[in-house]
Write a structure and sequence with these properties.
Elements (H helix, E strand, L loop, with lengths): L2 H27 L12 H19 L6 H16 L3
């Protein structure tokens, strides 16, 4: 198996692993927010792609940044999507 194939498998694994978790969070956090109902189906996909991309970039850069900093940044972006306009 080549390095490219291994990287693709890791990326797909991360995507599948986190997608179901994100759906639950989106459902929970968007309750009562009618203005976001149109984009709600896109949120888990978009945020998941962002998360997986950040994780891959973090690994490629030697995992020097603290994971909590990445999580905090992603969390604030995620919550911004769920706030009413």
């Amino acid at each position: 198996m080549s390095i490219t194939q291994s990287a693709e498998k890791i990326e797909w694994y991360l995507y599948k692993l986190t997608y179901d978790l994100l759906i639950g969070v989106v459902e929970e956090q968007s309750q009562g927010c009618r203005s976001r109902q149109r984009i709600k189906p896109l949120l888990p996909i978009s945020i998941n792609m962002l998360f997986v991309g950040l994780m891959i970039e973090w690994v490629q850069q030697g995992m020097k940044e603290k994971p909590q900093a990445i999580i905090d940044s992603l969390s604030s972006q995620f919550m911004a999507y769920l706030q009413p306009p």
